[in-house]
Amino acid sequence: MPNITPGRVEDVKIIRDHRFEQDVAMILPGEYYVSHQPIIIYTVLGSCVSACIRDPQLEIGGMNHFMLPESCEAFSDPLSRSARYGSFAMEVLINEILARGGRRERLEVKLFGGGNMFGQTSSDIGLANVDFAKQYLLREGLRLVAEDVGDVQPRKIFFFTATGRVLLKKLARLKNDTIAARERAYKQVVIQEPARADVTLF
Fold first, then answer.
1. In this structure, are residues 116 and 158 in contact, taking their beta carbons and an 8 Å threshold?
2. Any domain includes 197
3. What pLDDT score was predicted for residue 6?
4. What's the domain range around 71?
5. Cα angle for residues 195, 197, 202 (degrees, 5° grid)
6. Which of 49, 39, 50 minimizes the C-alpha distance to 128?
7. Nearest 5 degrees, angle CA 188-CA 179-CA 118?
8. How many domains does the chain contain in total?
């Protein structure tokens, strides 16, 4: 069962993908990866959202994979439980890029995911995740340069940190059950384990 506190970059599984002749870092829900060396970051998204963030001048880039602990309308309130967790997930990624020399004013952001994986309900966590991410970027003055969000299909994402290129593949509906089951399990962890309180957001 994943922990919602993003793991260390060093803990992310890296494989050699001979289709691209390049290393691929594979991130799961609650994880992130950042690199100043050319690499591909890969994940599969259902209702979760991934932000691909990059400093194009230094070619430093990273990706996270997160879900809010609950559907919440008050995303503009940074003290709400959902906003605290979402802000934490975003700031960890941004801070890792800045620590490697990136500049906040140069950052480019691409958003993916946020599908409705749990059926038509009054609480669409995928939509909530997308709404939070967009409001966060607006509040922080970060540039959203591309997005593919919403719908009901899960997505495979390959993010090339050196160029900012993203390869996206929408998966067949028949594969949704496996991804939805994984995200339900992750959602329970998120609900039960709030984001760490010892991280300063700025």
1. no
2. no
3. 46
4. 9-192
5. 100
6. 49
7. 65
8. 1
